[in-house]
């Protein structure tokens, strides 16, 4: 039996871009429903089940932010990607305060959009299995992701939120490669140069915290990411 296609709700008022995006996503085997305004998109969401929503911010009848708020009332978990012609920080912050999973600034490449969709799907598909586990044994260490505490020989060490998120991703991918760009998208949202350097700092910190057990190691995998060996 063939795998059921991922259903995408695309709300975009630019006819040329909307049509192009739908055709491209369909060609990539995504079942894409394109609606030209926020009101039509909302009515479609009420009637159909979607795995991802891609919403333009500036739309007639109902803007993307309003649409996202109404979608969140119906389904608090469905991933939302905002399309915006603006790169203003306030717009980005408002989007994430509503509960956006990602945003992409026009103009953008189709390949970039697919990359972001796939990153979200990897996260959400693994969520049901991986995110249920909150306590990990890392060699002699015990890591409680909910409490953000790493314990060695009954000595607890409180982690920051980002340290804890990064260590949890490493644990969920233990003895396998954690892709660098994937980790950046999940924790830092954007994989730009400054966030990449920031992640390097956090990796260094985690190595320092874990040095009490020589059997535990966070390896650099050149050109790919990191691997937690334990």
Overall number of domains: 2
Low-confidence stretches: none
**CATH H-tier superfamily of the largest domain:** Response regulator
Count of helical segments? 8
Helicity level, as a percent range? 40-55%
Number of strands: 12
**N-to-C series of helices and strands:** EHEHEHEHEHEEEEHEHHEE
Largest sheet: 5 strands, parallel
Radius of gyration: 20 Å
Relative strand content: 15-25%
- What is the CATH first-level class name of the largest domain? Alpha Beta
Mean pLDDT: 87
CATH level-3 fold name of the largest domain: Rossmann fold
First-residue to last-residue Cα separation: 38 Å
Outline the structure in words.
27% of the residues are buried. The chain is elongated and about 60 Å long. Strands 2-1-3-4-5 form a 5-stranded parallel sheet, with helices on both faces. The protein has helices at residues 15-27, 38-47, 64-74, 89-98, 110-130, 161-172, 180-188, 193-209; strands at 7-11, 31-35, 52-56, 80-84, 102-105, 135-138, 141-144, 149-152, 155-158, 177-179, 217-221, 225-229. The chain has 2 domains: 7-129, Rossmann fold (3-Layer(aba) Sandwich), CATH 3.40.50.2300; 133-229, Orthogonal Bundle (Arc Repressor Mutant, subunit A), CATH 1.10.10.10. Helix 2 (38-47) runs parallel beside helix 3 and helix 6 (161-172) packs across helix 8 (193-209). The model has no long low-confidence stretch (mean pLDDT 87). By secondary structure, it is α/β, with parallel strands linked by helices. The protein has 8 helices and 12 strands.
